[in-house]
Each structure stands twice: as structure tokens, then as C-alpha cells.
Amino acid sequence: MLSKEKVSSSISSSSIVNRTLENNPMCTCGSPASLRTSNTRRNPGRAFFGCSNYNMKGLPHYNFFKWADSSQEREQELVKIDIKLLRKQDELQKTQEEFQKTREELRKLEEEVRKTMEEVRHWMEEVRKREGEIVKMELELRHQRIHIRICWAILILLYLFYVRSY
After folding, report:
1. What is the spatial distance between Cα 131 and Cα 124, in angstroms, rounded to a whole number?
2. Secondary structure letter of residue 29 according to DSSP
3. Is 52 within the bounds of a domain?
4. Can you tell me the distance from the alpha carbon of 67 to that of 132, in angstroms, rounded to the nearest whole number?
5. Which residue in 21, 39, 55, 136 has its CB near the most CB atoms, within 10 A?
């Protein structure tokens, strides 16, 4: 861990360094975080606090990180963004739950439609059977009418023959 004097001599004495060292944060492991400088492309030379035990023993849980120049306003903005994100996640979760409910209702409706369609098919088969029976009965009636007409014709002929013969 760096002392206030070592950091002041090794890093330019800016107000950020002085302010941040006075409010030196503590890591979740219990040790005070040390002030370091970023060497990344995205944040070159930017000061940050990191756990002083980070990667000393290969333990990944020492992962405390905080930018040294981050003000409370910026942190509050991040908290607001986090809150918005959590709200959006809640909304997404609710929307997904509603979607699942709607999907389940749709599945139930589809099942009802399928059952109704099966009933309609059954009724249609019954109607076809009855129509077939009606057609058969109509054919039988036609045949009976023809037979009755033939019988009447024979009777009329017999009557005429009988009347003439007397």
C-alpha cells in the first residue's frame, strides 16, 4: 500500500490525488484500497483505487475498483442509471411474464379450437351419414312410386279389359 507521501511524490500533486487519498476507500476484504494509474487505451493515465491485495495471492475476490476522479455527482448519476436499469429489468420481467401468460392463454385457446374443430368434424360425418341415409330413402321412395304407378296402370288396364268384355 502506498502512503500519502509516496503517492504525492510519485504522482503529480493534484487536487484529485489529495482529495481522494483523504477519502481513501476500503476494499471488501477489509484493507484500504491503493491509488493506481490506468494504462488502458480507453483511460490512459487515469487514477483509480484498487484493492491492495489484488492478484497478490491469485485470489479473484479482491476486485475492488473505483475511479479516483469520480465525484459523488457522477456516482449518483450511476446510481440513477442503475435504478433505471433495474426498473427496466423489472419491466422486462413483467413483460416476459405477461407474454408467458398470454402464450399460455393462446395455447389453451388453440386447444379449445382444436377440440371444437374435432367436434365439428364429428358432426359433419354424422350429417354425411344421415344425408346418405336420406338419399337411400329417397331412392327407395322413387322405386316404390314407380311400383305403385305400375300397379295402378295394371289395375286400370284390367278394369278396362273387364269393362269391355262385358
Report:
1. 10
2. T
3. yes
4. 88
5. 21
